[in-house]
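Friendly challenge for the regulars: who can give me the structure tokens for this chain first? No prize, just bragging rights.
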Amino acid sequence: MSAPAASADSAASPAFSVVICAYTEDRWEDILAAVSSVRAQSRPALETLLVVDHNEALRERLLKEYAQGEGREHGADREVRVLANAGPRGLSAGRNTGIAASRGEVVAFLDDDAVAERDWLRHFAEGYADPAVVAVGGRTVPVWASGRRPDWFPEEFDWVVGCTYRGLPPGRVRVRNVLGGNASFRREAFTAAGGFATGIGRDGDRRPLGGEETELCIRLSRARPGAVLLIDDRAVIHHRVPGPREHFAYFRTRTYAEGLSKALVARSVGAQKGLESERRYATRVLPAGVVRGLRDAVLARPGGASRAGAIVAGVLAAAGGYAVGSVRARRSGVAFSPAPVGEGAHG
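First reply, four minutes later:
Bragging rights claimed.
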């Protein structure tokens, strides 16, 4: 899809609300950095909403940090609001809380352990110059705790650590779904399709699951057949990868959990759409990654054979998770319904 041209008027609107969901004081400095990166945007946000997931100590601490009046001091467009997750524990309900409380025409989501580049919102805004566009996502770059990518860690699996992975097309392109930690949606998208379905995505550190944004985007495309969803790789955020997530044990656990998640997504929206992008990824992107790793091994480049092996192991773990998740879903008869998120707090 060719990128729509953005005029000065279109770039000046719509207004953005940025939602950051947080759950632990262990990420205190990361949360402050995330908020600061929103405040530093070249295109200011209307507001930043910090949604705290059932952690009263963290909520109280953030309320003190962003005391009433600070928003006015920095200007209304830099306002920070601290909210408690009004739904069940987990990322999906936290996002839904932020959507319901937001005032902007577009709701953007930023992970609590990520920082956005200065033009992040400006590039999102350019995508919305086309009225058919209902969602715009960006590119998420890993910041490894060790200072460098582990030699064995394949770029094709950067989604394991919440980042943009090798195999996604470059530029501003039409996609099936955006990635939730670096994404934005028109408010009307939630009116048409509802909010994020609970029971699919993350719940703090308890379950390294995902897929809630995929399920929402597929549901949105069904509710609005003409809807366009984009990824613009100029809308960049930098996502911190803690030390434990650089190890193969986490890689194996996360890929297995992704299989479980895909089974839930397929249960919700059907396997044809739920696995549409995954089929191309598994049949084209990953085999090319294995070949590249083996070639590097032949050329005595560090980690080549390990990367090829990690790709194979990741595929097997995800396939195992999908099989187990499919059986569990059939036995339990579990179904997911989108949570209503209201019309927001306009005014």
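The mean pLDDT is 87. Strands lie at 16-22, 47-52, 79-84, 106-110, 114-116, 133-144, 172-174, 182-186, 228-241. Your move, everyone else.
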